[in-house]
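TICKET #2291
ISSUE: user wants both folds in one file
ATTACHMENT 1:
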Amino acid sequence: MAVGTRDRVLDVSLRLFATNGFAGTSVSQIEAAAGLASGSGSFYRHFRSKEEVFLAVVGRELDLVRAREDGLAAAPDDDGALARRERVRDQIADNQRFLRERALLIAVLMRDGGRFPALAEDFGKLHELIVTVPDEISEAARLAGRDAAATATVVLSASLGYHFMTAFVGGPPADVDPERFADALAAMVTT
């Protein structure tokens, strides 16, 4: 299926904003990357300004995040510590995959999120939108006799830290692959 011009502009704009920042990205760069003739007006047939395409890019990506959050299943009834640990591990691994998939959005928001007050409410909830701590993790902590909210916060912080360290060093920190990370963190939550 061919990607429409508007979607192509959104795709390349996300990449350019993540790489160069809002101020470092020009409409001409967006046009060139999207295969539009510079100065032809093609960009402006879809967006009135660079600000509008920025808001559209972030809005589209946040919609994907919200869709994921809506699709997370509630924790099943307790069916044993081993099964619970496996579900927690799977949720942590899923969060890591999702963070990798949303890496460009995270870069854009970290760099330029505060520039647009219209997005302040979404940015204020970013920790909830990017890495949703599923009920499974909170329930596992509660069953282990721990503070569920504090445990969920530790899992969230560890997941984000692992993601950022992987991006920073160009690979898994201390050569701990995502599966080992998820397994270790799940063991801490459930025991």
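ATTACHMENT 2:
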Amino acid sequence: MKTFVRLIRRYVLAAVGIVLLLLFSGVAVLGWLGWLESCRLPQREYSSSEIADSMVETAEGLAFGAERTPQEWMNGYEWAMVLDNVGNIRWSYGLPQELNHAYTPGDIAKFARWYLADYPVFCWTEPYGLFVIGLPKGSLWKYSIYSSPDFALSMVRVLPAAALGMLLLGLVLCFWLSWRGAKRLETVANGLEALAQGQTVQLPTDGFAGELAEKLNQTGAQLQAKNEMLSRRDNARTQWIAGVSHDVRTPLALILGWAEQLEQDTLLPDSSRQKATGIRTQCEKLRTLIDDLNLTSKLEYGAQPLRRKDL
């Protein structure tokens, strides 16, 4: 029974371990996907806001900050430009010819958050104008998702509780399934213990352990039939030994008594008395064999107490 309890304990711990392993594996996969995405994103030395803030007014017009070269500022970007309040290009760097024109408020509204001629762009409003910087085509996918503030706040509040609830639900299901399986297996274990003690078992055959319970029922029935057959055989043998001993002892006693009388009769010739001695000797041997047979039968069934002594 201790082995059975240890087996159930290992089963429960294994189920809980699997749930925790799946949880940590999911977190690890999410972390790996995030790291992989960070490697796939365009690698930029400086953010667009840093570049926009670095722009300075000079006598010749706008220019990058003097602390770095334009190539260093634009590392990872394709082009940049600054629009004035009416949409005219005030300054540009590496601007494609197809984009070198004035922009209406409608054009600015279209590309401000997404793409300009398939270039992913970032826009920053600065005192000197609208700073627009573009990435290479196909390097970034931009898509805006809208939601109400209440929905965003509720997601922040609900997601941790939902994850914890799902984990607890998984653990509860594991414990419930383990407890249910343990009850079925406990019935089977009790049946095995009853069979070990020689008792008759009749286990219910429903559930996932039904086939095993059915086999135990069949085994119990076969053992019971064999025990009954052995019991009938032992009873028959015991009765046969007792009957033979009783039936043989009576004539044997008469033969032994007559042989002793003939052996002690002085009127008989010596040859006849010697024959009587032989008959008595063989009768005593036969009586000893019968006593040994009865003693063997008694020892087999524990009916003869043992007389033990030191030798």
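RESOLUTION: both attachments delivered.
EXTRA DETAIL ON ATTACHMENT 2: Residues 71 and 77 are 10 Å apart (CA to CA).
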